Amino acid sequence: METFTVVAVIDGNTFEVSPNWEFGDETGNLVQAKGYTAPKTGRGAMAVEQKLSGLIQNKKVALGSPDGVQHNRLVCEVYYRDINIAEYFSAYQEQQREEIEAEQENLTEVSGDEELDIEETEA
Question: What is residue 94's predicted lDDT score, i.e. its pLDDT?
């Protein structure tokens, strides 16, 4: 894994690094940590941003397992002192799991309804 210096924290899971990263034919300096979902508004958002800033601002991080580039941000796992920073935000990992589970339940319900409609149409 390559190491980078965090030069600015943008929000609770997005920050700027130096030097620029390269992924495929894209390059940039913004990174979005995967593994947790940080709040985007309110006091919770400020608290997570401050915690992330205190943890990695002006420090070296390693980037690994990239998912790709979204909104000019490399979405990947981020390691500080060999620990995935998502571990520091475990409360937001649970929130992310709950969101995924709710989304899967909605998909299952839709699939179930579609199956019923198909069966009724075929009968």
Answer: 59
